């Protein structure tokens, strides 16, 4: 390593030699950087998980425009929308289809646990509004009190979910009614529920008698090929007399939901701060290590100053140390964080995983915060006065 | 006006430490000219200004009043970059060895060469090996300072100061940590460098053995040169 760095820097790798001179201290410093990395990785992992979980239900649907109530910040938030606006919107030549989307939570009381299912009430006669995987399975939803279950729901054994087929349906009681599951689709647990379920709008209204068919949670619209959802959304805002409605492209609605979850919901804000705290901890640890190292070698640095080494040389040493700490601290940090995220994912069934984007972002961030710490630590070099050596 | 052949020259050099009422003058109108290749020894009681003079000659302090000309360059008002560049042409030997604890003897000596810019690795290695060999440390080149005796460390420090063929060597009690034989070898080496390469040495010492070998002995008292004995 020493030889490699010597070739790389074109000089003795003093930073490396200094850091590795005391192996215990070096290991402690790396552990500190790794700890900061683990903090950032875990927080980012949870934030990513939140993003995946937030956007997942949007992937079940296919639409160009979504009309929601004014207080609807997320798919499962907000009031209802009058179906009449769907009919009015469909008067536009660009709008080819519309569907009311109903949403509510259904609790499936099982032997030991309760599985909370975010339930979508959809029109089974309009499979075009569903992802191809789900659309291919909605035939049984024509039957009253039939449902499709998210086979990756939290608290549902995989073998049991695998056994749910049209020829071997599974029934359960909820709100005093019997619901029969005929097939499954792939979803997964999120922060707001354990999984998902698809039922017909009629079944949904039967499960929730207080709800009305004229007031779905959202209205989904599909446009003719080539039509611009943003442009049509603007036209619809002019057309529809209820100016409080949120009329957005479906993609924009998904992004707004994500932004709301990450920046305005307490969980998102907490995890966001977690990342910031991780970065600050990293900066403080690297600064502390480098600052102590500079202080410990003040006489040597003063000697080098006397010999004619310039400020750039000392800056190079400290930044070399910062890079080494960042690089070598990142590796164990990434390994430990991968293990932790995998374990947490298994325990919570949240989509927690290490992603290449996270690795690249945290690696780059680690190098940057190490360099920032190094740059701050070089201020102590001013204290190395060669005149004091005599 | 500084003579062209004097690597070190001072005129009416004054220096103070502290500010306000605590301000104390350490040097008073020191004027001297040191010949190329000579071995000059500064003697005097503690606090007489020897070390202050040495640091001013070595661009380690800013010249406050008077003139110091080092290797043809006026140091009064010199920009830091010039001082740094000039220091690369000097060799410093401190009373304490000040070796870098993480570097081997060989690497510490190489630091004396590396400061001059990119030097061919093989050439630098040969020069460092030669310097360590001259000081009797051929078998200690790969040792860390922690594994060397006090005298050996000091000899490594001497090798580090001399490996770059400095024009001027400034030394502060360089033989204090050395035994009689090693001390004599170091001074003999400095003398030979003066004769062969024209290296000028200015040394602060109380070692009478060195006084006998010096070309010139300057005595300082209370910041003034009170004795100048040429030999």
Give a verbal description of the structure.
The complex is a heterodimer of chains A (390) and B (231). In chain A, 52% of the residues lie in helices and 16% in strands. Chain A is α+β, with helices and mostly antiparallel strands. In chain A, strands 5-6-4-7-3-2-8-1-9 form a nine-stranded mixed β-sheet. In chain A, strand 5 (170-174) and strand 6 (177-185) form a beta hairpin. The two termini of chain A are 35 Å apart. With 231 residues, chain B is α/β, with parallel strands linked by helices. In chain B, helix 3 (105-114) crosses helix 4 and helix 3 (105-114) packs parallel to helix 5. The longest helix of chain B has 17 residues, at 180-196. Chain B is globular, with a radius of gyration of 18 Å. The interface between A and B is medium-sized, with 23 and 33 residues.
Number of helices of chain A: 13
Query: For the largest beta sheet of chain B, what order do the strands appear in spatially?
Result: 6-7-8-3-9-10
Mean pLDDT of chain B: 91
Number of helices of chain B: 7
How would you describe this structure in keywords?
heterodimer; A: 390 residues; alpha+beta; 2 domains; nine-stranded mixed beta sheet; 13 helices; 52% helix; elongated; B: 231 residues; alpha/beta; Rossmann fold; six-stranded mixed beta sheet; four-stranded antiparallel beta sheet; 32% helix; 26% strand; globular
Write a concise synopsis of the structure shown.
Chain A has 390 residues and is of the alpha+beta class.
SSE topology:
The complex is a heterodimer of chains A (390) and B (231).
Chain A: H1 2-9, H2 14-21, H3 23-59, E1 65-68, H4 84-89, E2 95-109, E3 114-122, H5 132-135, E4 146-150, H6 158-162, E5 170-174, E6 177-185, E7 195-200, H7 201-207, E8 218-223, H8 229-239, E9 246-249, H9 250-263, H10 266-296, H11 298-307, H12 311-348, H13 356-377
Parallel strand pairs in A: 3-7, 4-6
Antiparallel strand pairs in A: 1-8, 1-9, 2-3, 2-8, 4-7, 5-6
Chain B: E1 8-17, E2 24-34, E3 39-43, H1 50-57, E4 65-70, E5 73-74, H2 80-87, E6 90-93, H3 105-114, H4 121-134, H5 150-162, E7 168-172, H6 180-196, E8 200-204, H7 208-211, E9 216-221, E10 224-230
Parallel strand pairs in B: 3-8, 3-9, 6-7, 7-8
Antiparallel strand pairs in B: 1-2, 1-4, 4-5, 9-10
